[in-house]
């Protein structure tokens, strides 16, 4: 019994993030409701959450474009890019152009989280990346990328290896 408990603790310590930790970060970004899917492994974590309201949390700084987002990331560590001209996928590409390190870290978070995504989470992530009205949220300290898709009523979060 003791060996089983130690093994369970060891496996838990190997996870990239817990659902509670991911929710704690996201709740500072957007009003999320129930968890629809969550999975975490050693090098990734992914979550799919119901969106309660499309208002971005007041403590999350909102940038109108990638250049402003890069400046915010340098000082505050988290930002939402709400540029109606860009899908989240295009916003990541624009962020890479102005701040390669931050942009690539967020792109990697999305790519590295794929093994932790359920089919439902993966489909929602892919759709939100291309959704013209979806909002890209990035957190440098958390190493998290989240997509707030108001039309679908979802928030999809991804974390890669640290």
TrEMBL record:
Protein name from the UniProt record: Lipoprotein
């Amino acid at each position: 019994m003791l060996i089983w408990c130690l093994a369970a603790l060891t496996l838990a310590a190997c996870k990239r993030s817990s659902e509670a930790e991911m929710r704690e970060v996201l709740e500072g970004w957007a009003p999320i409701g129930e968890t629809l899917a969550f999975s975490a492994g050693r090098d990734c974590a992914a979550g799919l959450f119901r969106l309660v309201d499309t208002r971005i949390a007041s403590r999350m700084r909102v940038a109108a474009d990638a250049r402003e987002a890069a400046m915010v990331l340098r000082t505050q560590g988290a930002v939402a890019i709400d540029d109606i001209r860009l899908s989240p996928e295009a916003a990541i590409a624009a962020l890479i152009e102005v701040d390669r390190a931050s942009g690539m870290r967020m792109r990697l978070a999305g790519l590295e989280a794929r093994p932790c995504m359920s089919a439902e989470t993966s489909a929602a992530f892919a759709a939100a990346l291309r959704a013209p009205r979806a909002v890209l949220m990035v957190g440098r300290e958390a190493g998290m990328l989240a997509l707030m898709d108001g039309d679908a009523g979802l928030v999809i979060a991804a974390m890669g290896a640290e």
